[in-house]
Amino acid sequence: MGELKVTCDPAEVGFDAGRLRRIEAHFAPYVDDGRLPGWLALVSRRGEIAHLSTYGSRDLASGAPVETDTLFRIYSMSKPVTSVAAMMLYEEGAFELTDPVSRFIPSFADMRVYEQGIAASPITRPAAEPVRVWHLLTHTAGLVYGFQHVSVVDEIYRNAGFDRGTPRGLDLAGVVDRLAGLPLLFEPGSQWNYSVATDVLGRLVEVVSGQPLDRFLDDRIFGPLGMTDTGFFIDEDRADRMASLYTPGPDGRAVPVDMRGAEFRKPRVLLGGAGLISSAADYHRFTQMLLRGGELDGVRLLSPRTVAYMTRNHLPGDADLEDFGRPVFAEVSYGGVGFGLGFAVVQDPAKTKTLSSAGEFNWGGAASTVFWVDPAEQVTAVFLTQLLPSSTHPIRTRLRQLVNQALID
């Protein structure tokens, strides 16, 4: 879709250019002192890119810099993409949000809920409520992530092979069936807990559409939007654009994570909740489609009413994640933040204690990436980097401060 670049004078869209430069001034030291290997920041308003900056290295060993076309593992920023895919099928009448997931994935019938006991011999009871499609979209199904190390159910997941990966030898259908055999953390719909729900949703997309998840995303989202660099793996022709992955060492400086060339192989399990690689240009196009109510450059994926519906709070009683959610590791506060169909949604900026707008929707990825769309201000932001885990540094709150303080109209 052409070279990624600033497309306007920031003042034309209500930004102060000098104040936008505070983004670079703040995040450059993260690289200089070794906390991050490198990063890319993109800010747009009213469809125009007002700020684009890069700093540091996509690979510390070679010294190759982060560039505007660098490819990053976006991990959970895959979740909004899979949620959009599901809602495209919803718009075609393929299912209702209240449908039991077992209608499409039979193994999800007769689910059980953890009551007490140790992971090796848990006591469970039959679930009174079926897991429904809206539970998957809102993370209220009672599913978990094994790596969270909070509950006994997390440990049960780890013992079953779900730590930071999936059991060997299974494809997505097999993984989802295996998940269905594990107990739920709570009664579906009764609480919020960040989980593998979007991976299950990806399998539902496969069943309903009759296509593998990667094919559906290519045919229905990435191709139409011109997201030519987004997918579950890359070809070797783009190897030199790929950002290496890092984690903090004992001294706090970034040290490499050995991915053993995983980015060049189609994964055995197509995880709609965590598996995508993308670029700033591609994800920017995805955010613009959302900002414009489901359409970009004459291509419509969703109706404006559907996007508005997805990006309102769906937690019962209009609760926020602080009151309705289970405590899990997180870089940002859950106060004043609800959850829609695939996105966190800011309800009360004062309660979040971060400069933001009511109605902003967002999510981030495990390697410290983040995006948000602010319909009130017509602003989108994408921040890409490569450090696991995302809770290491206060990137997301600081970025919101720095972007929003630069708005002057």
Automatic annotation (TrEMBL):
Limits of the Beta-lactamase-related domain: 24-403
Record-linked Pfam families: Beta-lactamase
Cited InterPro entries: Beta-lactam-related, Beta-lactam/transpept-like, Diverse_Enzym_Activities
SUPFAM superfamilies in the cross-refs: beta-lactamase/transpeptidase-like
Protein origin, superkingdom: Bacteria
Listed name of the protein: CubicO group peptidase (Beta-lactamase class C family)
